Amino acid sequence: MNAPIRPRDRDAVIQSLRAGVVPRSGQHLIQVGRAREIETLVADIARIADGSSAFRVVIGEYGAGKTFFLNLVRAVALEKKLVVATADLNPDRRLHASGGQARSLYAELMRNLSTRTKPDGGALAGIVEKFIATTKTEAKASGQSTEALLRQKLDQLTELVNGYDFADVIAA
């Protein structure tokens, strides 16, 4: 038997469907016929949570359910306490370009960074704050200075473009 649906979830799904948009939460309540695809992507998410990586491209005709499917996968990833970044590709946000479109895509991904506590985006500040707080706790427990431990953890970023500046700001 299925568990009862919380009124908040029910209302969110119904309002989204009435507005003609994909529900941001509660997709599992109305999802049918995608068991195999969901199982495959849940396995990908489990591997990612274990430190591996995965890449999938979802393609389909307009109205085929791509956005719905990706939001469902996103919800599963958030439930597993992973950080999720989302962005829609368009002519102004592309992976490869010379007119700033790739930077625009990256900016959109960072704006839309989500966690369980910030599922609608804007989670970057919280992620950085948690990283710093955790490092402070570890530094105190090990007798190291917080700045030294932060710099040690951020060292691998310094070789990336603008990585040194980013690491310097975080460690400050």
Automatic annotation (TrEMBL):
Protein's name in the database: ATP-binding protein
Database matches in InterPro entries: BrxD (IPR021228)
